[in-house]
Write a structure and sequence with these properties.
heterodimer, A: 252 residues, mainly alpha, 11 helices, B: 327 residues, alpha/beta, Rossmann fold, Alpha-Beta Plaits, 2 domains, six-stranded mixed β-sheet
Chain lengths: 252, 327
């Protein structure tokens, strides 16, 4: 059942190019611009030892793409609500939370796609994955799990508001949260207050967990911190989704 | 056996009482027409009965299950086609039916077979691989109906199934609903079209501003208003003579001063030959003669003091049910 709904979510996303393009086009362009324009930044004292700026940036691009995927998933869910399709699902004899899980399966597929896309770009343009295949797989797994986490929050907002335009309006916030993390610049080289915000931003933990296997190899500390951050956001997202679902069913 | 039993059902939205303690009963195998204008509470009632909305008072049972405490069993027993056809424009017709089959618990092979059968049944076999976004309004309604039937439900809820459709498409839907009922499916149908309720329903409940104001078979309800009447147009100068000629055949209604004579008759069409003979014997020329039967709108006016809205153009399907009495 979740599989059928997930398959539908995936099909829907790939049949709607306007949901795919922000996940792929915008982050790829940003990667190209930043890599081309700020590549000398790796010479700064205190910059993590990396092969290239591209190698450093891959994790941030994957994160950006993943978060936009979560936002796109939320938009798609809100569109389902607006056109009444969720009523069809709610009127079926399935556990109602399966509807949310089916949507998250679709978002996870987008996260997987994003991670594969950027790993491919990195490899094509000469970036080296220091952690090898296990490192690449770890990065993919963390990004895919993160997509579920962020997708849960997108789903919660969709269920609460029932409005695609509201969910779409959160797009700038996604970028703010990301730029206030270590996604695009090492935390150690940030100035205050961005540095402190990044230190406590859960997305910084996730980025570091994804980046470490790319730039140096798998490290238990970063991996566990990333997993914990993802788990926390998943719980938050699922909790908010469950609450929003109950509210929607109560108020119609 | 009772298919739907509603007792004191209520739904409020803040201060607004959209459904005010309604009672109704639908027997198995019946087509129940729930008739009312926009904003009367029809869709709110349907949403409660189909477990999409929790009641704020009263109780309801569908197919023997309570809509609040046994909601999942209710959902397994019902098919639902809501006011807005709940279709994903990016899916094909076949994909949608197969998804619905999966959600209803049909195994994959059975779901595929059922999808083929239903698409042919509703005349969409030729469009099954086309995306729903390219379907016409009538096609979407038929697909929605097919999706509601995938698991052969005991009770079928149709919320304004023909609103916005052309007459041909409307007739097609009516024929399909009648065929389903002939096969034993109980149908709960909301409509703002008098003709639809009159043609299809075994029993009709009329709802206005959250309350049921009348209930019965269409004939019973119309019979409450009075007998059919014959309308004769004879020209202003001939009205007294015409009234004299036919007055003994029924009850004359007050003159309207427009050359018409209104005669209430007990037997309807069977009385017309006598009326015609009487006029002929009196040498009165008749410009036109029409038998006018009471309509459900007459019933509605009698009970509520105003006409049923949206009867003519079928509009209002896009209007939210915003009008309701304060709590």
């Amino acid at each position: 059942m979740v599989g059928a709904l997930g398959a539908r979510s995936i099909r829907q996303t790939f049949r709607r190019p306007q949901l795919i393009s922000p996940i792929v086009v915008f982050p790829t362009l940003l990667l190209a611009i930043q890599t081309g324009g700020a590549g000398a930044g790796i010479e700064l004292p205190g910059f993590p030892p990396v092969q290239s700026f591209l190698q450093f940036m891959l994790a941030g691009s994957m994160m950006q793409s993943m978060m936009l995927a979560g936002n796109s998933g939320g938009i798609a869910f809100a569109v389902d609500i607006e056109m009444g399709f969720t009523d069809r699902l709610f009127a079926s004899p399935i556990p109602r939370f399966a509807i949310v899980l089916g949507r998250l399966a679709g978002t996870a597929a987008l996260g997987l796609f994003a991670s594969l896309w950027f790993l491919a770009i990195g490899l094509i343009f000469g970036a080296h994955i220091e952690g090898g295949v296990p490192g690449a797989l770890l990065a993919i797994a963390l990004i895919t799990a993160s997509a579920i986490a962020v997708g849960g929050i997108g789903a919660a907002i969709a269920l609460r508001t029932g409005s695609a335009s509201v969910v779409q309006g959160l797009f700038p916030l996604v970028l703010v949260v990301l730029f206030l993390s270590s996604a695009f610049f090492p935390q150690e080289l940030m100035v205050e207050p961005a540095k402190t915000i990044a230190e406590y931003n859960p997305f910084s933990f996730i980025v570091e967990g994804v980046r470490e296997p790319i730039i140096s190899g798998i490290e238990a500390k970063q991996t566990l911190e990333a997993v914990a951050a993802i788990a926390g956001i998943i719980l938050l997202g699922l909790g908010l989704s469950a609450s929003a679902l109950r509210h929607r069913l109560r108020t119609g | 056996m009772t298919a739907i039993l509603v007792e004191g059902l209520e739904r409020s939205f803040g201060e607004v009482l959209a459904v005010q303690g309604i009672d109704l009963r639908v027997d198995e195998g019946e087509i129940y027409g729930f008739l009312g204008p926009n904003g009367a509470g029809k869709t709110t009632t349907v949403r409660m009965l189909t477990t999409l909305l929790l009641p704020t008072g009263g109780r309801a049972g569908v197919a023997g299950f309570d809509v609040v405490n046994e909601a999942r069993q209710v959902r397994a027993s019902i098919g639902v086609a809501l006011q807005e056809a709940a279709l994903d424009p990016l899916m094909t017709g076949r994909e949608l039916i197969r998804l619905q089959a999966t959600l209803q618990g049909l195994p994959s092979a059975a779901g595929r077979k059922r999808a083929d059968e239903l698409l042919e049944r509703v005349g969409l076999g030729y469009a099954a691989e086309r995306r729903v976004g390219g379907y016409s309004g009538g096609m979407k309604r038929r697909l929605d109906l097919a999706a509601a039937l995938v698991h052969e439900p005991r009770v079928l809820f149709l919320d304004e199934p023909t609103t916005g459709l052309d007459p041909v498409s409307r007739k097609t839907i009516w024929e399909e609903v009648q065929a389903l009922n002939d096969d034993g499916t109980t149908v709960f149908l909301t409509t703002q079209y008098l003709e639809e309720a009159d043609q299809l329903a075994d029993n009709v409940g009329i709802i206005d501003r959250g309350r049921i104001v009348a209930e019965g078979t269409p004939e019973e309800l119309k019979g409450e208003i009075g007998n059919p009447h014959v309308e004769l147009t004879v020209g202003e100068g001939a009205v007294p003579e015409a009234e004299l000629a036919v007055g003994g055949l029924g009850e004359l209604r007050p003159r309207k001063g427009d050359g018409r004579v209104l005669l209430e008759v007990e037997q309807g069409a069977a009385d017309i030959p006598r009326v015609v003979r009487a006029l002929d014997e009196a040498g009165i020329a008749v410009e036109s003669l029409e038998l006018v039967r009471p309509t459900l709108d007459d019933v509605f006016v009698e009970k509520t003091g105003h006409h049923l809205e949206g009867e003519e153009g079928g509009g209002g399907a896009d209007e939210p049910e915003a009008e309701a009495a304060p709590a």
